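Need a sequence for this fold. Nothing fancy.
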């Protein structure tokens, strides 16, 4: 069994980007600038956005955090999005999800300039991705593809079973892994909450990508020997014995399944850090496109 070490690979990618930024500085060029909009005080979102901003600083990007109160109206958020679209200094930005319930998420994502949409959530980017055209690829599925590629995991002709059909992970990873290209050419089955006898699919899978958000959902008797496991779940489980009052766990019963798997991503330290690295990669790409416009 081999660990797919997302922490290490994400650090490699960040080092590669930092080297490019250093060269930009030597050439006297503007460095990439990422902005993040966070509405409200959701604990996990605060952690993710904080981590994204800190990573920018580490690799030499400029970053701006726009933290708006929970009561922000849809109109106010749309005005903020319009301002970011207009601001030539910003190369790319994200609106952290989930948004408070009184705000229409789709409306906000539609308002983001597709050329600055480093999350790859705008229909223009999602559509281009589905049609094999150049686009911003959502950071989490992009990170999974990069991890599979760098560890040379054989995906060609393999049966990949994706659990979960979210717009952020399940849907895009099922498209990417079925496409032609590196870490792809897989035969993909997309399963979800209405799938009957899910275990019959996971037992037949060469690769399982679980993006469900249910701790310890995937058990050893649900997979075959030699399976490749990509655990996208990140759940905070309350635990008073931990300094933060919770611990982080994935969808996969790691101790059981790691004895059967050929490759497995740990949680934490697997897919999570890759998401941030690929967001930075998308921001670098946005800067390059911006410069060449
Ligand atoms: N919420 C959970 N994951 C993500 C992500 O990748 N981007 C944004 N904007 N929000 C998220």
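Here you go.
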């Amino acid at each position: 069994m081999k660990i797919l070490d997302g922490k290490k690979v994400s650090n490699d990618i960040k080092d590669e980007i930092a080297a490019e930024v250093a060269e930009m500085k030597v050439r006297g060029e503007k460095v990439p600038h990422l902005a993040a909009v966070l509405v409200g005080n959701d604990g996990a979102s605060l952690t993710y956005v904080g981590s994204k901003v800190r990573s920018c600083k580490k690799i030499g990007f400029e970053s701006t955090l726009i933290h708006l109160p929970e009561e922000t109206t849809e109109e106010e958020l749309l005005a903020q999005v319009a301002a970011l679209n207009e601001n030539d200094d910003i190369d790319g930005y994200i609106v952290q999800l989930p948004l408070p319930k009184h705000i229409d998420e789709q409306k906000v994502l539609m308002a983001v300039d597709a050329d600055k949409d480093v999350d790859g959530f705008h229909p223009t980017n999602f559509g281009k991705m589905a049609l094999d055209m150049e686009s911003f690829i959502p950071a989490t599925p992009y990170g999974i593809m990069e991890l599979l590629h760098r560890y040379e995991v054989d995906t060609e002709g393999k049966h990949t079973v994706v659990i979960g059909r979210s717009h952020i992970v399940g849907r895009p990873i099922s498209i990417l892994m079925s496409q032609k290209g590196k870490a792809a050419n897989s035969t993909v089955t997309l399963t979800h909450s209405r799938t009957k006898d899910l275990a019959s699919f996971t037992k037949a899978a060469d690769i399982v990508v679980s993006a469900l958000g249910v701790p310890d959902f995937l058990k050893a008797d649900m997979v075959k020997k030699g399976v490749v496991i990509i655990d996208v779940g990140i759940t905070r489980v309350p635990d008073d014995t931990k300094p933060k009052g919770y611990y982080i766990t994935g969808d996969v019963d790691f101790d059981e399944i790691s004895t059967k798997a050929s490759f497995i991503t740990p949680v934490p330290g697997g897919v999570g850090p890759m998401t941030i690295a690929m967001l930075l990669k998308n921001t670098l790409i946005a800067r390059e496109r911006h410069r060449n416009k």
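For context: The radius of gyration is 19 Å.
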